Amino acid sequence: MNTWKRVTIFLVIVACSLLLVGPALAHQIQHAHTHHGEDFSFIDGRNTAVICDKERDFRDAYIDFEKANGESGYKYDTNGASSGCGRLTPDSFIIAYRTCEPNAGCGKYHYRQ
After folding, report:
1. Which helix (H) or strand (E) holds 17?
2. Domain coordinates in residue numbering, the chain
3. Distance from the CA of 66 to the CA of which of 45, 82, 87, 89 falls in 20 to 30 A?
């Protein structure tokens, strides 16, 4: 097999790998989770704040966020540790967020780029 044929096959394999793995990597980058215990939050691809309460501790977890317009906001996951998460799409781009619980504190802020 000549060199050009080997290079072509290699490039085809690399391109196919990127097509298969690329969307999964983009999903991971876009959905960086912040945690507080087992509870977690993230911002989805539509700038929606998502909070998921996973602890059966009778404290509804919430996502605390800062927006590009200088305002702040929050959203509770009001169903406790039941399935499903709380969601809120604000009117301005979210630049930072963290996962919190009443009377238990908050995790570290995650800053979006």
Report:
1. helix 3-30
2. 1-30, 32-111
3. 82
Of the ranges 26-30, 44-48, 80-84, 88-92, which one carries the lowest mean pLDDT score? 26-30
3-state class (DSSP) for residue 20: helix
* Amino acid, res. 17: S
Residue 82: Cβ within 10 Å count: 9
Neighbour-count burial of 26, counting CB atoms closer than 10 A to its CB (0-12 exposed, 13-18 middle, 19+ buried): exposed
- Residue 24 is encoded by which pair of tokens? 């999964």
Residue 69 backbone phi and psi in degrees, to 5: -85, 5
Structure tokens at 21: 């793995």
Within 10 Å of residue 89's Cβ, how many Cβ atoms? 13
Cβ atoms within 10 Å of 61's Cβ, excluding its own? 31
pLDDT digits (tens, 9 = 90+) for 7-57: 566 656 655 555 554 444 444 445 688 889 999 999 999 999 999 999 999
Burial class (CB within 10 angstroms; exposed 0-12, middle 13-18, buried 19+) of 74: middle
